[in-house]
Every structure is written in C-alpha cells, then in structure tokens.
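The methods section describes the discrete structure representation at length, but only in general terms. An entry of this sort, consisting of the sequence and the corresponding backbone structure tokens, reads as follows.
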Amino acid sequence: MNRDALVVGINQYPFLKDTPTSKAKHLFTPANDAEAIAQRLEEYGDFRVRRLPETIQGEQRQVTSDGLVKSETLEDAIIQLFNPVGENIPETALLYFIGHGLRKNRGGVTEGFLAASDVDPRKNQWGISLRWLRELLQKSPVKQQIVWLDCCYSGELFNFVEADLGTSLQEQTRFLIAASREFEFAEEDIQGKHGVFSKALWLGLDPRQQPDGLVNNDKLIEYIAQTLKDVPQQPIWYNPNREIMLTGEREDVLIHIPDGVCPYKGLRFFDVEDATYFYGREVFTQKLIQHVQVGKGNFLAVLGVSGSGKSSLLRAGLIYQLQQQRRLPGTEEWKIRIFSPGEQPLVSLATAFMDELATDMQRAEQLKVADEAIAQGATGLARLIRAARSPRTLLIVDQFEEIFTVCQSRSDRQQFISSLLGALKQTGDKLCIIFAMRDDFLGKCAAYHELTDLIQTNLVMVTPMSLKELQQAIREPAAKLGRKVEENLINAILKDLGVEVGQPTQEPEPGMLPLLSYTLEQLWQRQKLNWLKLDSYHQLGGVRKTLENLAEQTYKELSTEEQRIVDLIFINLTQLGEGTPDTRKQVPQRDLVSLGKSAQLVEQVIQKLVQAKLIVTSEQRRGEEKVAVVDVSHEALIRHWSRLRELLDNNREAIRTERRIKAAAEEWEDKGKSVDYLLTGLRLAEAEKFLQEQIDILPLSGLSCELIEASQKERDRIATELERLEKEELELERLAQQRELQQEKQARRGWQWLAFVLGIIATATIGSFVYREVLRQIAIRHWQAEMIPIHGGYATIGTSESDDAYADEEKPVWHPYILDFQIQKFEVSNRLYRLCVQAGHCDRPVNPSRLYNDKLLNYPVVEVTVFHASEFCDWLGMRLPTELEWERAARGVEGKKFPWGDDPQVIKFANVPFSGKSNTDTEEINSYPQGKSQEGVYNLIGNVEEWTSSYFQNSYINYNPQLIWKSPQSPLRTDLSLTTRGRSWTTEIMRVTERSQVPATHHKDDTGIRCAKSVN
C-alpha cells in the first residue's frame, strides 16, 4: 500500500503572548505525543511518516521538542501531503496535528486555525486556516484522506458551509477527528504528560489489543468514544461508511460457521444486524448520510425500481452507519424509527413511537400519547417530536407506495401525508423524514402538490449496481466467513445479469438484486470444500431461473389440495396494480386460516412455504395488539414465477370483484349491518354473477356471503312491496274512474255538484303518497338498469400541452385519486324527468314545451338550471357528478383524449357543430354509439352540456376537489360559478378537457343532466 503521513507536534510558540511583556505560551507534551503516534503508524500501519519539527538522533528521525515550524513550512507540507506534484499520489494521506489551536471571531463569524510557531494574533498572523484545509481536501486526488487534530477549537474543522464533509468523488473517503468541539479547549491528562485525546488515540491504534490484530476506523472510533465518554472534552468525528485499515494486518482464516448462518439474505432485505455482510452500496449509503446531516435538510425521497435494494440500503446501510458506526457526531443519540404504512398508516405511525424495550404498561401509555397527538394532525405530531429527549428524530417510511396500494382510506392517506409534511415545518432540525418508494408510484404523488415538490428537490434515485459493486456484493460476504467464490462463477453471474467483465460495461437489468441474492443463498447451501462453485450454479439454472425452479419444485411436491391452498394464499398476498405492476401486501395469518379450508391444513401449507423461503411470517405490533402477519418474500416472486403470474392474469377481474365484495361486507359490518349499506342494482348483480361463476376459484368469506344473502332478501322485499303498491294504485285508479263517471252523471243531472268536487279531492289525497312512490320506484328501476360502474383509482385530469389552443383553466395535468362511483349511461331523458314532475318533486324546466312533447320522450331534458338538475338526482337517491368524476368517466383508465379514444375527428363520434354540418337540435340519448366511452357511457361529448357539482376553479394548480355543492339541502355559494362539461349540439369542442363556467341559474336549450352515485 502507498500510505503517507504528516505528523506535526509543536511545543514552541515564542510570539504567542497575551501582551508584549507576558510569557510565551509554550507547550510541553505535543512533541512526545506526536512521536508516539508517528512510531505507531510506522511500526503497525505501514505509513511513510514525515515529522514536523524534525531532528535526527543517530539514525532515527524524531519530532523535536525545541524546534520551530513556520506557517509557510506547515502549509507547504500539508499541500505536498494531500495534493502532491507529479503522478506519485498516495492511496492514503494522514495528517496528525497537536499544538495550539486558535479561533478568530469577527462580527459573529468564526474561523479556526492550526497554530504554527510564528503565529501572533496581535499582528493578525493566525496560522493555517481550517477553512483552507477543508477546501484543499475537496480538491485532493487522494482516495483515503485522514485528519486527526488535537488542539483547542479543532471542532471548527466541521463548521462548514462552503465545503462539505462528504466527498466529491465516489472513490474518495474521509476520516476526520477533532479532539474538541469548536468552542472547547483541548486538555492534557492529569499527569501533564499527554494530551487527553492523543493518549486515547495512541492506545486505540495498538493492533495488539484487538482479537483479530487489526484496527480500522470503526474500531478506533469505538475505542475513543468509550475511553473519553466521561471526560468533559468531547471529541467529534466524521467516520465514513467504508473501512479504512489503520494498523495491523488481516489474515485469511477459516471461520467456524454455526448451522443456519448465511451471509446472503435471499429474498429478504438486509437488516441492521446483517450489516456485516452488506456490500456494494457504500456510495449510496454515503449519499444518504450526507443528506441527513443536521443543517443539510430534513426531507429525503429514496426512489428505485422494485428489487433495487432500497429497504436494505436504509437498514443495513444508513441506520447501521448512523447508530452503530457513528458516521456523524451525535447520531447514536438520535431516535430512528423505520416502518411501512400498511392498511392503517396512522396506526403504523403511532406504533413507531413505541419503545419495544418498555413494559406493556409503558407501551400502552406511549401509544395513547402518540395516538392523541397524531389525531391532532401536524400540530400534534410536531409537539410529540419536540417533546422527545433525543436531539433528532429520523422517521423512515419504507414502502411508501403502500399508502396508495394497501391503504384504502383516502382520509387516512391525506392525514398521514399532511401530518408528516406539516410537522416538518414546525420542528426545524428536530425531525427528518425519509420516504422510500418504488419509482413507478411517483405519478400517484401528483395529487399532493407539496409532497411532489419536496420529492423533486430532495431525491435520491437508487440505480443498479456497477460491475465493481456487484463483484463486492458477490465475493465479500463469503470472504467475511472465510469462504471463497470461484472467479468463473462470478463472471457467469455477471454475464447473466447483463454485465460482462472486459467488455464495454452496461448497467444490469433493474430489479435483479433479489434474484441474485436468492441464487447466492442457494449456492451457499451447496458450497463444496468452502467454495461456491460454478457447477452448482448451472445445476440451479442461473440467476434468472433459480427462483422459479425452486418455487416450482416446492409447488409440485404438494398435494392437489395443498396446491389449491397455495394459489389462494398467493392471491391474497398480492395487491393488484391499478396502472402499475402488482405488489405484495401483508395479510394477518388469521385471515389466511379462514380461507374456507381446514385451518390445520392451511397452517401446514404456510409452514412449507416458509421453509422454502417463498413467504415470510412475522409478528408485528399494530397499536397495542401483536399480530402474526404473512408476506411474500419479495415482489420478485410475483414478477418472475410464471405459474403465479398466469394465476393472477387469468383471474384478475375475479380477484378485483371478490375484493370489492369483501370491502363492501366489511363496511356493512362496520356500520352495524345497516340496510343502507346493502348491495343494490349493478353491485348486487355483480356479486350474484360472481357466486355463480367464480366461487370455486375464489371462495367468499362468511361475512361476504351473509351480505349478499341480506341484500337479496331486501331486494325481494322491495320488489314484493312495489308489486303490491302497483296493484293498489291500479285498483285506486279503477275505483276513481268509476267514481268520476258516476259523479259526472250526477253533475249532468245538476244535483250535489259539491259532492263531485269533494270526492275528487278525497281520492287524490288518499292515493297521492302511493302514486308518488310508485313513480319514483319506476324511475329508480329504470336508472338502476342503466348505471355504469366506474372503478376508482388515479385518474388523468387536465393537460400540460403547451399549444396556445389549450386554455390555462385546463392545466396542468394531474392525477387525483377518485373513489369508485356509478354514472348514468345516458343523459336524463324527458321521459324520466317527466316522472319527477308528475310526482311533485321536481319543478318543470324553464321552458317546458319539449318536456310534454311525446315525440321527444327519448331526448335529453333541457332548459334546466343546476337547481332542477340537483333536485332530480336527489329524488332518485343520487347526486350530480363532480367534474373530476365526469372527466374520469370520459377519459377512462388510460386518460384518453376523448371518450372513444384519441381520434380527434369529433364529428364522427358526437352531436356537435362543425363546418359543413348543420345541427338543429339535440338527438336521442342513445345516439352515436360509436362515441361511447371505454366503459360504455354515451354522449359525454356533444348533444347537451352537463351540469356538475363542482364550483369553477381557474386552473388545476392548488385545485380543491372538495369545493363542490353537495346537495340541494346545503346552501349554494353565490360568490362562485359552477362548471358544466362536454359542450353541446350548439358549441364546438376540440378536446375533452374543455370546461365551462356558468351561473347556477344558467339554462338553455342545450343544457342537460347526468346523475352519479357514490359506491359505499
């Protein structure tokens, strides 16, 4: 190794005086301490040491106690060490300085100095600037840079703004120690023979005190911290996450390995306790450390593809380096919590504040305090953070995408995000948050503008490992346990990953790390004579086939009934993607045991899958309760096991239907099994169809079956009641007609004319309620048959097109999350609206002439204000759609430009005016079937412009989805206009994103209605 050291120990300071006549501030211990360090580095560290000041006694060079060192000489020596002239650059450069340290304070700006013998602050001669030293280190080409300072105020080395503690080059490493903080003196020991810090340093560098005969940076820091923990003078350091060999030698030894110990983690992530075997991510770990330094920021987003190693990087990389390797001063006192959001992110957040080492009573109290604070949102969470004794709380939300995939509550999602981001603003450096997320979910964050902005400005993308990093990740874990990997095996693995040694390098395929780790785990179990060998690799099938081959082997060894249970287990452990790849999800083990199979058999299958390492089980705390959960070992299994992929693809719609029924059943139970939450209309028809066709593939839970049965009974009861009401109405009409004829005869005879009038009034009074309800039920039957379900998810709203034709009110494009809803297949017809008028619930349109034209019964009702529209929808138990729902229905899941697709020739698909085409009126509601949406909704473009419940907002920047008129019973804001969508037979439309701003009283012969309904 090429290692240089500059050891400086200055005793003589002839000009350093308080006054011209006072004594010089000479020192007595630096030269002796410096010589001791120099000898330690030469004898055990293989360093070439230059000493200042130096004398030669006999043939030995020594640090002299009476020599002088000028500032110019010291500066030149430091430059030669870290930035030498020529090509002979050392691999490691070490500066050790002991002597006086000075601190200049001008206008509140402080600067530290290493004092040479000629310093004289009274003449503004301060010595070597620590700011200059930092800048020199930044420009140095030396890969390993070591600086140890034993002088007063040496902590000024870390008082950086313009320079960074990190490294400018990925291959560089810095190891810095200051004997005292920037405001402290550096002390001598009680005997006055050594500096307190230098004595601990000298003892810590002795490799004979280590069991393995080796001192590296981590061991030295550990020794110094332990030795000086009770000393008022507190050293501070910057300890890199890479190993630096200081003294001693490492010998290759064969280590006895207990049964079951494997340095490779397979499909599991590397946890903190596995950090010893975590290689290949040193550069990214260093990036994370730099980002979480106090004063560097308090938010970080770590994004990467599934299988890029984010979870391992956070645990075995960042957390390990901060808590156990003391990479930054004081981080061992930080409170660091890592968790995943899960189905209930607010509960998971509260649970993160519990101390696992506390008693049950203490944990219960901690949970209560955290729950109450989080319930108050950002203010409560900030108060909880500020009350913590630790100087900083680092909250790491791993698998942040679960907030969109597993969490189904929009309000919980909103509160979780707003609480965390809001607390950041109120806590300063007391709180730092890291979100780790799959990069394909970045678009789903667009609905949260503040979150999106933070991610874009504080982003670390976890990219695939380089060739060198992959070689380390393969070779070093085995070497840690005294085992070796055949070089041709390493080359074969790299080739299968798309990286070949000696060829122009290219990045390996993203997301392959789990397959690599799983293959290495299997190779470890097949090692021969302490070697991992190529022939075993070929037997396994290589990186791309090992996982699938072993999964298939496990599956085929099971009985037919067990295989059926395996299918159900993996279906339940998979969260189907909505525009994104499928993901895994944790499921309580009790839910799997209740799959409609023998509980004992299900538990037996779970254990077999655990033994095969295809799934993992763990016990997690959810609030005060500990829950046994089951999880797929890694999403790589979902992506790369073809049997599982085929199972999911063939049953995708059935799985979605089963989950909708299950969610409805759970909500029904949560609402006390209220009749208001039973399945009706299309939802009930969907459930009944599932029972007939899919029950053998996906058995429903007992609660789901109970919901369907209760819904069927309620439907049958309503049908029977409706039939009875219709019979009664027909009989009443027959009797009324008879009475009317009889009374007319009496009237013609001229007697008792008053009895005739009273009879008519009595008949109307008796039958009015029944009559109105019959009309409403007829209308409800009609719309239930014509409702289109629109599945919730992230919708594409607006546009980011820069063309001048696109109005600002249509911009920018964003992706809000929209819940499941239903929308009418057609616009509301005159036929339907006439029923509402006849029932006495709706007012006639402003111009009712078209309403009573029997030739126009199947045409859309027009001349209606928003009050007409809202009253009609309310009569049927529905509501007006929001404009976001309307655009989601129009553009479909893929966010097309028009309901029918991307074809811009609107004239072919809709009733709209164009040059050469004469439009004189609306057309029937079922016209233009070629223009219907992907889900089957007619005439969203053209014919009539349709009311929505959304108040008009000038653009989608900071758009508030809750700014709507909820119902006719709530007051209408008079200071805002409403929004209509879709244009009409009288107005041109160039794209589906166009919006119209109209007053509530607006009505024309092209303004109509379409109703919507939330899905409970």
